[in-house]
Amino acid sequence: MRAEDVDMKLARMGDGAEIFHTLQGEGVSVGMPAVFVRLSLCNLHCVWCDTDHTWNFEGTPWAHEKDAQSGYKKHCKEDVIIEMGAAEIADQVRKYGCRHVVLTGGEPLLQEEDLLELITELRADGEDWFFEMETNGTRLPGVQLMAAVGQFNVSPKLANSGVAQNLRLKPEVIRGLVACGKAWFKFVVEKENDLAEVMEWVENSEIPLGRVILMPEGRNVAEIDKVAPWLAERCRDLKVRMSDRLHVRLWGDRRGV
Ligand code: SF4
Q: What's the pTM value of the predicted model, to 2 decimals?
């Protein structure tokens, strides 16, 4: 298939796609300048999701924490999805002059074939492009994508996501990602109780502690700071990394930054 034949569903922002140049805000490469490409669609529906415009569409039954906020309503698909070919997306990414790209969502692996086309298109410029992929750990990438992506930022969801266990827990997928040697596993922690669940996950899925990252839940600095101090102590004692949410500290709960 030629790159121009591919139509990828991206998150829409204004008249264009949610493609932007910023600093990676979470995980093992926090602080790294990168171009983010946000894909639409997700196979989960986490109640605290901060990118609900990628899946909480009109006519779906999913609940979201923001349901309680006045003025919040589910999204009209036409308003939040834009379809673009790989060549067009690649042109937009190139204009930033930054060859570190974060493929995020939603769940990017729902559009795996299209992503391969995009990566191939960009690598036609040279082999020095580096791709990180954010994923919820419920789908194992195929051999080609596994080889093409340099780093997988895997964020398995806990019970605090409100998603049914059989949808969000896929130990065989996690084991496959561990085996590829390119994956880091980031868990969003809200309460002390979450830690027991994380450690059970880590043990059952055989994730090396050196690849585990715990991150406080929070869509604003006050929420993050409620969790961060005690989580820091627990990370130290458990011998795992902690990640802050740099983009939230710098720019708040805004899109496109
Ligand atoms: S898996 Fe990620 S994108 Fe999907 S609903 Fe959960 S937090 Fe949002």
A: 0.93
